[in-house]
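If you are new to this repository, start here. Below is one unmodified record pulled from the training split, so you can see the exact layout before writing a loader.
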Amino acid sequence: MPKDELAALRENMDKAIAFLQNEFLSIRTGRAHPGLVSDIKVDYYGNPTVIKQLANITIPESRVIQIAPFDKSCLKAMEKAILAANIGMTPHNDGTVIRMTLPELTKARRVELTKLLARKAEESKVVIRNYRRDAIEALKKQEKASEITEDDLKKLTKDVQDITDKYIKKIDEVYKIKEKEVLED
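And here is the target side for that same chain:
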């Protein structure tokens, strides 16, 4: 497994971290964030289209999300899609924009959200470990085909494990930051 294959392993693991961070954006903390609604799909003239392509999403206050569609005729469809997404907020349509206020999070809801965060972090760790397993299997095949020596196999296996440990630690860091954000009052 030459350096370019280790670079590809790192790239895949970076993508797993980026995916986790994106997943965490959709989990609300008590502060408004465009990520809470940006990927909700709206039936726009028969095509499922994400809200971020149909409107400007702004945060006029810390707990308010405002959605200003480019085409006012899709307001009702957006409102319907937001309700169907069941994100815990009720959209208020004034004819030109949709406003949503995030309710205060209860202690029980905060604990529930941290459990969800932990589950998503663990799923990401599984993905990272699967990448490790695949890389080690590839190394063993190369050794069996006499492309690399047994010593190379041991060294490269250790390198793969070191990379894996680094990314597992990154997942833990991302999780702890988001957990702290969720538990803050």
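Two things worth knowing about this chain: Strands lie at 41-44, 47-50, 55-61, 64-69, 92-93, 98-101. Helices lie at 3-25, 51-54, 75-85, 107-144, 150-183.
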